[in-house]
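Exercise 7b. C-alpha cells:
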C-alpha cells in the first residue's frame, strides 16, 4: 500500500515547492495595484506622489528580495536539519509561510509597504528551506526504483504552484484592486494543510538510523513507507551505506569543499543548479506578454493565454515524473537543455522577423511553449533529485546548502542582469541562454553517470574513477568494517583512519 509514501510526497511538496512556484507567479497579476498602493501610502505619509524611479525601485525590491530570503533559508537549512530532522524542518517551515501570509495580506490595511517587502523576504526564507529539505526528505524515504518519480513531486508541485498563481490572479478571481490581498492570504492554506497531515507521517528512515541511531523507529518508518512487514533488505542497504562512510558525523560545508573524494559530484551539482537558473526560463516569463501583445492578441485575453504556459509546464513535469525511471536522469537532462537551445535559437530568428509576416508572432509563441516544456521535461526538477543522489548521508545537508546557495544567487543574478542584457542585445538576448544550455548539455554528457535504480553507495563509486580515488575491493571493505572498534564512551572509532572515497 503505497499511500503513505505518496501522501508524504504530495503533502510534503504542497507546503514546500508548491508555495515556491506560487510565489514566482503571484506578483505578476496585482503588480499595477501594488504600485498604486505604494503611491497612495507615500502620499499619505509625505503629502506628495512618489517619483517614477522610486516606485520602480520599491517594486523591484519587493520582487527580488524573495531571492535574498531564499539564500538565507538555504544557508540555515543544514543547521535546522541537524536539530529537527527532515520532517521536523518541513513542519517548522510552515510557520514562516503563515507569518509571511499575514504580513503580505495585511500590508494594505496597515498602510505599510514595508510589511509587503518583509513578507516577501520571509516567504523567500521559507522557499530556501523548502527547496533543500524537501528533496532531501523525498530522496531518503523512497525505495530506489521509484526515487526519481517521487523526487519529481518537487518539480510537479512547483509548476502547479506557478499555474495556481496565474489562475487565481485572473481578473474574475483575485486579480482585482479590491481582492489582491487574498492572493497573498492564500499562502497560508497549503502550509496549514501540510501541518494537518505531515505530523502523522514518519521521519526519513535513513535519518533515524544513521543520525539518531534509532533502529526500531527506522524499521517502523520503512514499514509504513513501503507498506510491507519485512524491510530487512532496506535496513541492510542503509547499514551498508553507514559502514561505507568513514565520517559518521555530518560534514561541514568547508570539509565538503576540501574533500577530493566528492570533488566531481560537487562540481556537477553546482553546474547543474547554476544551469537550472541561468538557462533562461525566468527570462521567458518576462517576455511572454510582450510577444503576445505584438502578436496582436487583445490586452484583455492576455492573462488567459498566459495560463497556457503554466498548464504546459505542469503537464511536462508530470510526464517527466512518469518516464524518469524508464529513461533515466541523464538523457532527460541532456534532452531538456539541448531542446531549449534549439527553441531559443528558433525564437531568436522568429523575433527578428516578427514584423515581416503577420503569422510570425504565433511561431514565437509556439517556441515559448516549447522552451517551457523542454525545461520541465528534465532541467526543471532533476537538479534537486541529483543533489540528493550524488551524496551520501553525512554529506547531504552540506551539499544541499551549497546547491541552494548557487540556485538562489543565480536566480538573483538573472533577475538583476537580464534587463541590461536585453537592452544591450535586444532580440539576440536569448543567444546568451543558447550558449548556457549547450555547455550544460556537453558537461552532463561527458561527466554525469546515470543514477536511476542505484544505491547511494553505487553512485559514489561511479564517481571514484573520475575523482581519481581508488575503489576499495570487497576484502579491503571487510577489513575496514573489522577495524572499527568500540571506544570506551560508546563512540565508534576508526583505527586505520583509512582514507577512502566513502
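Sequence design result:
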Amino acid at each position: 500500500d503505497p499511500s503513505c509514501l505518496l501522501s508524504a510526497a504530495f503533502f510534503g511538496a504542497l507546503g514546500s515547492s508548491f508555495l515556491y512556484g506560487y510565489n514566482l507567479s503571484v506578483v505578476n497579476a496585482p503588480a499595477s495595484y501594488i504600485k498604486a498602493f505604494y503611491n497612495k501610502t507615500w502620499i499619505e505619509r509625505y503629502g506628495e506622489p512618489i517619483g517614477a524611479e522610486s516606485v520602480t525601485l520599491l517594486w523591484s525590491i519587493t520582487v527580488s528580495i524573495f531571492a535574498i530570503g531564499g539564500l538565507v533559508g538555504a544557508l540555515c537549512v543544514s543547521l535546522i536539519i541537524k536539530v529537527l530532522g527532515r520532517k521536523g524542518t518541513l513542519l517548522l517551515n510552515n510557520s514562516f509561510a503563515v507569518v509571511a501570509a499575514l504580513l503580505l495580506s495585511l500590508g494594505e490595511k496597515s498602510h505599510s509597504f514595508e510589511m509587503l517587502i518583509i513578507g516577501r523576504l520571509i516567504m523567500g526564507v521559507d522557499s530556501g528551506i523548502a527547496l533543500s529539505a524537501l528533496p532531501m526528505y523525498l530522496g531518503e524515504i523512497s525505495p530506489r526504483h521509484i526515487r526519481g518519480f517521487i523526487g519529481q513531486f518537487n518539480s510537479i508541485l512547483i509548476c502547479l504552484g506557478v499555474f495556481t498563481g496565474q489562475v487565481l490572479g485572473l481578473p474574475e478571481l483575485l486579480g482585482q484592486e479590491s481582492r489582491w490581498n487574498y492572493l497573498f492570504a492564500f499562502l497560508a492554506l497549503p502550509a496549514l494543510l501540510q501541518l494537518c497531515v505531515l505530523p502523522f507521517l514518519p521521519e526519513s528512515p535513513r535519518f533515524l538510523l544513521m543520525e539518531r541511531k534509532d533502529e526500531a523507529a527506522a524499521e517502523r518508518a520503512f514499514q509504513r513507507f513501503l507498506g510491507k512487514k519485512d524491510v530487512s533488505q532496506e535496513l541492510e542497504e542503509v547499514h551498508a551505506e553507514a559502514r561505507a562512510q568513514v565520517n559518521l558525523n555530518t560534514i561541514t560545508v568547508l570539509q565538503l569543499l576540501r574533500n577530493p573524494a566528492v570533488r566531481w559530484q560537487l562540481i556537477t551539482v553546482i553546474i547543474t543548479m547554476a544551469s537550472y537558473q541561468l538557462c533562461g526560463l525566468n527570462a521567458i516569463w518576462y517576455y511572454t506578454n510582450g510577444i503576445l501583445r505584438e502578436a496582436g492578441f487583445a490586452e484583455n485575453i492576455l492573462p488567459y493565454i498566459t495560463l497556457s504556459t503554466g498548464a504546459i509546464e505542469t503537464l511536462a513535469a508530470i510526464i517527466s515524473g512518469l518516464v524518469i525511471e524508464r529513461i533515466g536522469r541523464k538523457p532527460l537532462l541532456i534532452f531538456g537543455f539541448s531542446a531549449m537551445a534549439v527553441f531559443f535559437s528558433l525564437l531568436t530568428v522568429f523575433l527578428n522577423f516578427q514584423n515581416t509576416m503577420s503569422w510570425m508572432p504565433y511561431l514565437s509563441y509556439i517556441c515559448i511553449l516549447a522552451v517551457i516544456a523542454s525545461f520541465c521535461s528534465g532541467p526543471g526538477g532533476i537538479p534537486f533529485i541529483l543533489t540528493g543522489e550524488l551524496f551520501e548521508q553525512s554529506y547531504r545537508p552540506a551539499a544541499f546548502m551549497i546547491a541552494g546557495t548557487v540556485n538562489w544567487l543565480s536566480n538573483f543574478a538573472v533577475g538583476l542582469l537580464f534587463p541590461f542584457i536585453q537592452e544591450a542585445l535586444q532580440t539576440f538576448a536569448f543567444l546568451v541562454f543558447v550558449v548556457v544550455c549547450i555547455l550544460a548539455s556537453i558537461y552532463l554528457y561527458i561527466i554525469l553517470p546515470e543514477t536511476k535504480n542505484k544505491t547511494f553507495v553505487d553512485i559514489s563509486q561511479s564517481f571514484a574513477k573520475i575523482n581519481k580515488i581508488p575503489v576499495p575491493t570487497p576484502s579491503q571493505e571487510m577489513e575496514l568494517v573489522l577495524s572499527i572498534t568500540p571506544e570506551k564512551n560508546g563512540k565508534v572509532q576508526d583505527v586505520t583512519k583509512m582514507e577512502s572515497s566513502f
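Instructor comment: The chain has three domains: 1-249, 250-469, 473-502. The chain has 22 helices and two strands.
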